[in-house]
Amino acid sequence: MGVFFLNFLRALKGPTKNLVLRTTLFLVYLLFGAAVFQTIESGAEHREIHHFDKVQQRMKEKYNISDEEMHIFFTEISKAIDDGYFDVAYDRWSFAGSLFFTGTVVTTIGYGKMAPNTVWGRIFCIFYAIFGIPITGLMLKSIGERITEATANFWKLIDTKIFNREPRKIYLKTVACIFLMVTGMILLLAGIGKSYEGWTFFEGVYFAFITLSTIGFGDYVPQHPANSEKDHPGYVIAFTVLTFVYFTFGLAVVSSALLAISRLFEDEPPWGFISLMGGDDGEDDEQDNLLAEKKKAQIKDKMAGSGAP
């Protein structure tokens, strides 16, 4: 089977070969991840199901609740938990809460703890996201480009002014520097989460990565550090704005890291990576261009031989 697949790849041209190879890698990666998560998480899920079944049975026996009433009760509790009503002690759709929600929409983080429940709110969310996501993407790209260029220029200055040599491995240094920035932001966010949200440091690291990668599961969501919005309205708004600004800058740094990596592979592609990321496309394009030029030259020679102008 493996030999057949290799022969099949050799028979394909560059772009088609890259498509098949990348798709195969994607599918294999999906299957690998599914197998690992099933192995790690399935046992815990079964234990939780068994635990909640016992809790449900004890409540039915203690309070003489029917199965139908218990099902309705658990359904309502589950909906309230999913919607995040037990996580906060403030009006979630105040201006501060709405601002935080719009930030999760346009950045595609989408924690899921807060979502519009009305028809008009959902309709507006669709159109708001259609225009807001591209606008945010352009902004993050611009900020990321500035961060990448500033970091690259810094290393060029170091090489030319301090070491008196031609700049070398600029984008490799840029990638390393930006990854240190991302790591620093993740650790800082983890520390803030540990101090203000009551999480463990690892939970803070996990939350920071899930947020800055825009995965946004919603199992950990920052809450406003106030017991009542009426008591601390300015503090709540300031917390919301600062959180959104931090997330936006963090996403811009991640964007700059991805940009630096792409430039690294264009400037200094590692061995064996060209065929995977499309390096063969350039060779195929060059061959196609040479063939096109050759055909044009042949046509010109025929036209010159026939006396055509």
From TrEMBL:
Its main location: membrane. One of its GO terms (biological process) is stabilization of membrane potential. SUPFAM superfamilies: Voltage-gated potassium channels (SSF81324). One of its GO terms (cellular component) is plasma membrane. GO terms for molecular function: outward rectifier potassium channel activity; potassium ion leak channel activity. Keywords: Ion channel, Ion transport, Membrane, Potassium, Potassium channel, Potassium transport, Transmembrane, Transmembrane helix, Transport. Residues 88-148, 177-265 form the Potassium channel domain. This is Potassium channel domain-containing protein. It comes from Pocillopora damicornis (Cauliflower coral). The lineage of its organism: Eukaryota, Metazoa, Cnidaria, Anthozoa, Hexacorallia.
